[in-house]
Amino acid sequence: SRPFLIDWWEIRMARRLLSAVLGAVVAVSCVAKVAGGEISTSRPFLIDSQVVDMQWINSTRKNARPHDKVVFVRSAKGSIYRSTDDGLYWVSQKDKIAEEDEEPFQSRIQQMQFSKANADYAVMQGFSDVSWYTKDQGESYHRHSFGALVEMKLHPTNPEWVLASKYEGEFPSRYLSLFVSVDFGKSWKKLVSNVFQFEWADASAKGRHEKTIYACVRKADTKPKKSFASWDPNIDFVVSHDFFGSSKVIVEHGNRFAVHPPYWFVAAMNPEEELEVKMWVSSDRGATYHTSHFPYQLSERSYRVVDSKEGSVFVQVTHSQRDMMFANVYLSGEDGRMYSLTLRHVVKDFKGMSDFERVNGVDGVYIANTADTDAKPQFTLAGGLQAILGGGQVDGMVPTKTAITFDKGGMWSPLKAPEKDSRGHSVHCDSKCSLHLNGKTSRRYGPVYSSPTSTGLIMATGNVGHHLHARADEVNTYFSRDAGRTWEEILKGSYIYEYGDHGALMVLADNTKATREVIYSWNEGLNWTHFEFWDHQIEVENIITEPTGASQIFIIYGRRHDKGVLMQLNFETLHERRCLGVESPGSDVSDYEEWTPSDELRSGKCLLGRKVTYTRRKRAARCFNGRDYDRKESEYACACARTDFECDFGYQLNSQKECERVPDMPLAGFGAPDDCSGYFTITRGYRKVPGDRCVGGEASEWEPSRRSCPGFGGTSAVLLFVLSSLAAVLAVFTYSKRKEQGMSMPWQSVGDALDFVKEGGRSLFSGASSSSRGGYRGLGTEMLEDDDFGLGEDDDDAQVLGGSLADYALGGGGAAAPASVGGTAGAGPIDVAIDLISLDE
């Protein structure tokens, strides 16, 4: 008889089909009836370990159908799971990427990389020598082996191009080399050795194109440091436009860089002091770089960009090795170069993550946790160990307080405590008491959370008191619907949370213990409904919806024993009625209202110099917005007030909330620039908050004063022209009068006439008093406010005045004010500090 042949391809396809069928059986959805409608859920899908990464692929694609979004999940054990219907069904990708004779570790994935150039392209970077490449969102994969890759970067506009680094050489002298593939991983070309960090450039930036690459590279023939974490003076930040056929050093000693479009940041070490670094910044997408300037003469040991929205940058700076748990936060101007202190002692963890949170959807609002330096620390062994292991602030450590700003860091204030708790009981809070919220450094409780599509809504956990506590019996869940101006307690205890349907739906779950239910609200916490999603309890780690926040479909994930759990919750059938009346918000027949965010420190509904009115669903309306809901808003400029300005570079807030000079701040940069032409500006200690759009009002009180350049440019030239014109008119008038009266002329030639004009006609008034004799010089003295430097004609006097500026500005007594200007005895003394450089204005 014919021998039996095993068709391994058929067996593998059968296994895939069986796996898909079993997965579909396990994940079949069910419908549960609740008050007001129905909620459909998938049955829990168990994976080999907890979820560590979840990404939606085509959630922003215009051709994506409502329930046709691809979602990928990576587990702690490196397994990949894929869903093509918003998480209703899941399929393990193991059978697509693993070979028959491979050990399990050989198909483990350490990172999922998705292309910004083409949503169909993705790379599953393996732990072993193999990575998997897909051009159809995971329907199929191509397996390519090129050694164990350390890091990969997909090109921002060309989906076929990939950068990758891997180790070469023998231990302990191994080094990283950079490679490029232009055929999506099929073949690779080595670019450069001894690379530490790399990134594709923005090809649309000036002087950049598709092949431009930035990297931190060690100089040739130099010895490496013992560890990558150490700062190395032999590493430079370089750029190449031809795949490293040539390269150019942009920042010497540049060891690290970060990209926050349109800003690029480079940290360069001080070669004379290993632990000190300096930050360079580019505000034009990497085309040009300049050093950043901070107002204190302190060593800068590390940086972290915490926010770069709205045309400016918040940077967290660690100044000392002792500042392991705190850092100062500075705010830049629009170019990202000049920084002013906005908040001291912001809480951070040992990884550098800080409790500094932007409120999404509303410009200029930030919430932060700071160390209360006035309170006495109570260090305990248990508290210290818990802080180290948990990475957060706990009882027994430095007390922490929460503050909020509505003007992008110009002023900070405590959070108002709610008047009642979630059970209707009065909240007792004295004058030093306020609301304090957990931030990202808390590993135990839900952090401050807001969504760009849920305008003005914030959820967080925390407590009311003098400081933030971590005791479970004091932590509750809080909610604000006016961007943090007022707060209310919505639930006792700590919960994890998510918004859906543009903020109309809120879904929460207890994250402190295993549970089988979620709690949801359609009226922003006025009422809550409990819903059991499974018969068994799981430890809920997160609730998440697709990135736009417009969906009513959520994925809840967590752990049960040693397995991960994935479930879909669909609220689309809960309410059948769609919200009406978006064109007539505020009327009785409309489900919508108008809301205008405002700064509590100023009168009127203005924020960052403008009155912005949003249309949003009324809190008690029982309806849904829908995926295609387009939030309407209008904007008007406000008159400028003090709250539209923050402290300028070199200034800081004092106890009276006024901006004053930073002690020992160098004067460099506060006078006329070397290339001064026409006019320059002198700060009054304030600058308009970046992104602020106020006009008029009190702007002239806070904006820099405009001054003319020294010498005979600007106002000096105008004054000279006016004086010369007056003298010329006087000369013509004198000539005519003397000729009519038959008197002799005061000059006999054109040269004499010019001398007469230059002298101001003084020879005509030889019999006048000394006060009249100095008439034109007196005019010059009276006009000194318009001639800011007013140095006259004597260069020696100019040098003396310039040398005494520091003493006048800083209040020193090392030099006396000059007795006169221009060497004229009749002119009175002036205040150099005010009239010359306006440092005290």
Gap from first CA to last CA: 106 Å
Global morphology: globular
C-alpha Rg, in Å?
A: 34 Å
Unreliable sequence segments: 1-9, 17-28, 380-396, 712-716, 746-750, 753-841
Q: What characterizes the major β-sheet?
A: 6 strands, antiparallel
Mean pLDDT, all residues: 79
Helix content: 10-25%
Total helix count?
A: 11
| Global structural class | mainly beta
Question: Tally of extended strands?
Answer: 51
Strand content: 25-35%
Structure description:
With 841 residues, this protein is mainly beta. The protein is built from 11 helices and 51 strands. The strands form 14 sheets. Strands 1, 2, 3, 40, 41 and 42 form a 6-stranded antiparallel β-sheet that branches. Strands 4-5-6-7 form a 4-stranded antiparallel β-sheet. A hairpin with a 2-residue loop joins strand 41 and strand 42. The chain is globular. Mean pLDDT is 79; it is low at 1-9, 17-28, 380-396, 712-716, 746-750 and 753-841.
What distinguishing features does this structure have?
single chain; 841 residues; mainly beta; four-stranded antiparallel sheet; 11 helices; 32% strand; globular; disordered N terminus
Q: What layout of secondary structure does this protein have?
A:
Blueprint: H1 8-26, E1 29-34, E2 37-42, E3 45-47, E4 51-56, E5 71-75, E6 80-83, E7 91-92, H2 94-97, E8 109-114, E9 122-126, E10 130-134, E11 142-145, E12 149-154, E13 162-168, E14 175-181, E15 189-193, E16 195-200, E17 213-218, E18 235-240, E19 248-251, E20 254-260, E21 263-270, E22 273-282, E23 290-291, E24 302-307, E25 314-318, E26 326-332, E27 339-347, E28 356-358, E29 366-371, H3 381-390, E30 400-405, E31 413-414, E32 434-437, E33 458-465, E34 476-480, E35 488-492, E36 495-500, E37 505-510, E38 517-521, E39 529-532, E40 539-544, E41 553-560, E42 563-570, E43 592-595, E44 610-617, E45 633-637, E46 645-647, E47 651-653, E48 659-661, E49 679-682, E50 686-688, H4 699-702, E51 705-708, H5 715-740, H6 750-758, H7 770-773, H8 775-782, H9 795-803, H10 805-809, H11 832-835
Antiparallel strand pairs: 1-2, 2-42, 3-42, 4-5, 5-6, 6-7, 8-9, 9-10, 10-11, 12-13, 13-14, 14-15, 16-17, 17-18, 18-19, 20-21, 21-22, 22-23, 24-25, 25-26, 26-27, 28-29, 29-30, 30-31, 32-33, 33-34, 34-35, 36-37, 37-38, 38-39, 40-41, 41-42, 43-44, 44-45, 46-50, 47-48, 49-51
